[in-house]
Amino acid sequence: PAKNVRELIALAKMRPGQITFASSGSGQANHLAGEMFKDAAGIDILHIPYKGGGPVLADMMGGQVLMTFGTVLQTLPQVRAGRLRGLAVSSAKRVAFAPELPTIAEAALPGFEATGWYSFALAAGAPAAAVGTLNREIVRILGLPAVKERLLELGTEPRPSSPEDAQKFYAAEFTRWSRVVVRAGLKASE
Fold it and tell me: Of 53, 121, 141, 188, which residue is most buried, by most CB within 10 angstroms?
């Protein structure tokens, strides 16, 4: 029923505990994004954990659950086909592959960002020379126009970095998501 993020928040405030948000499983990134959204918006929405993204989409299209924080790869084709309504993206800035969708931050909740990411990792203690060589090659490959284009088609914007920057990023993400887990009162068994 909501046509934008502000309407969704207003609806949730009118119907506390009645609006459902689905995730691909307890503790998954989209569960945590929903908990972050719930906290930032000051709303009470009910988490419904599923066993994977496919069942989430099926039940959303069937009307059993109202919302999800799905991956672009899963949800955007359904949005473009008119089977789901995309309200916003959870990244800090609009994404190149769906520029028509505002960010949650610009639509209603300044500063909101909940994004998934991929990284390359090696075993602890890998030789520094090997780490450097591998990093340079990964950065080079991610910079190739054909690779960038294909990743964008898959809903991923490459952001190459150095091993040092990656370590700082991991630490910041751990801190950020730990806060979400604590504020939501989540336990490992959930």
Answer: 53
CB 20 within 8 A of CB 63: no
CB 159 within 8 A of CB 93: no
Backbone torsion region of residue 155, taken as left when φ is above 0, otherwise alpha when ψ lies between -120 and 50, otherwise beta:
left
pLDDT tens for each residue of 11-56: 999 999 999 999 999 999 999 999 999 999 999 999 999 999 999 9
User: CB neighbours of 161 closer than 8 A, spacing ≥ 6?
Assistant: 169
Structure token digits, residue 56: 């989430």
DSSP for the chain, written as a single string? --SSHHHHHHHHHHSTTT-EEEESSTTSHHHHHHHHHHHHHT---EEEE-SSHHHHHHHHHTTS--EE---HHHHHHHHHTTSS----B-SSS--TT-TTSPBHHHHT-TT------------TT--HHHHHHHHHHHHHHHTSHHHHHHHHHTT-------HHHHHHHHHHHHHHHHHHHHHHT--TT-
Amino acid at 104: I
Task: Tell me the pLDDT tens digit for each residue of 78-99.
Answer: 999 999 999 999 999 998 889 9
